[in-house]
Design goal:
It is a single chain. The chain is α/β, with parallel strands linked by helices and 329 residues long. It folds into two domains: 151 residues, Glycogen Phosphorylase B (Rossmann fold); 157 residues, Rossmann fold (3-Layer(aba) Sandwich), CATH 3.40.50. It has eleven helices and twelve strands. The longest helix is centred in the last third of the chain and has 18 residues.
């Protein structure tokens, strides 16, 4: 349902990786609703390549978090000079609200929660909705998704099939005549949120168990998580350390072929789940899976403190998922 007169659009999504991946579903809907429009994304540098690879944007800018007065002034000048007809604020934060007020007087039609927005998301329950349903609801309020699925668990997961186009599909672990299936581990997460991490020694023991059952182990994450991979390798020496060696697209391609993924509530696991991997997500009470969990073939385990989640319980859940995958193959 294209909107007449809406020829230039700005979409705002700044961070973080998990939220960005979930927002791809709304970005797809925006492109479907405005097929002929020129759509620009305002984001931050980590997401530049992923956004430019997607079929949703004509232009991507990465200066969405200015720090100095000069940077704010340059961003305001460029945004005002672009003469956007509409803005879809998928960040909906105090920072993106500031961008709205930066464009006063006469800001473009604005979908979001900024005071004075002409397409406000007025649902008072928005903060109790999962990101996918909340953004679908926002686009319904904006008039481009009248039948938006907003009941819990009904919004479609992000479609990242376009990533495969330019990616090779070689295995991450060399094998013999009949390569072993592999399980991806995502043991990292935000360094300032240690309560969201299952202890690395538990990942190591799980790796030993799964390898003995016939599965290779592939560990992904940022370069800062290489010590975690090395700790796992001390118990499971054949585990493959790919931390710091994969971009977002490569992580997604690995996920598309994985027998299973196990990890904390962190961005790369959202990519893996969106790629179609059966995914086991480990949550502490620091996060609410009803609001932020990845979508797809996802199972969650939640405890008050992840340090108290036994390896045996995770191994049992992993084995159950692997059995289901093998039965469906």
């Amino acid at each position: 349902m294209a909107k007449r007169g809406v020829e230039k659009i700005l979409v705002i999504k700044l961070s973080a990786l998990g939220d960005f991946v979930l927002a791809l579903a709304a970005m797809k809907k925006i492109r479907e609703a405005h097929r002929k429009a020129h759509i620009t994304l305002l984001t931050t540098p980590p997401f530049e390549h992923l956004a430019k690879s997607s079929p949703y944007f004509n232009l991507v800018f990465t200066d969405g978090r200015p720090e100095t007065f000069g940077q704010w002034t340059a961003l305001r000048k460029r945004l005002r000079g672009a003469n956007y007809d509409r803005v879809y604020d998928l960040q909906t934060s105090s920072h993106s609200n500031r961008l709205f007020h930066l464009l006063r007087p006469g800001p473009p039609a604005w979908s979001g929660i900024a005071m004075g927005a002409t397409l406000p998301h007025r649902n008072t329950l928005r903060d109790s909705m999962h990101t996918l349903e909340r953004q679908a609801d926002q686009l319904m309020y904006a008039g481009i998704w009248p039948d938006a699925p907003t009941a819990p668990g009904t919004a479609p997961a992000p479609d990242i099939s376009w990533i495969w186009k330019d990616q090779t599909r070689e295995r991450p672990v060399s094998g013999g005549i009949k390569p072993r299936p592999y399980v991806m581990f995502v043991p990292g997460g935000s360094s300032h949120r240690p309560e969201k991490r299952w202890p690395v020694e538990n990942y190591a023991e799980l790796a030993r168990i799964l390898y003995a059952r016939g599965y290779d182990i592939v560990i992904v994450g940022g370069a800062q998580e290489t010590p975690l991979a090395h700790a796992i390798q001390r118990v499971a020496p054949r585990a493959r350390d790919l931390t710091g060696r994969t971009d977002f697209a490569r992580i997604a391609v690995l996920g598309a072929r994985a027998a299973l993924a196990v990890g904390n509530d962190t961005g790369p696991l959202h990519l893996v789940a969106a790629a179609g991997a059966p995914t086991l997500v480990l949550f502490s009470s620091a996060s609410d899976p009803a609001l932020t969990s990845p979508r797809g073939k996802v199972t969650t385990l939640q405890v008050e403190r992840l340090s108290e989640l036994p390896v045996a319980k995770v191994a049992q859940a992993a084995s159950s998922l692997l059995s289901q995958t093998a039965g469906a193959a």
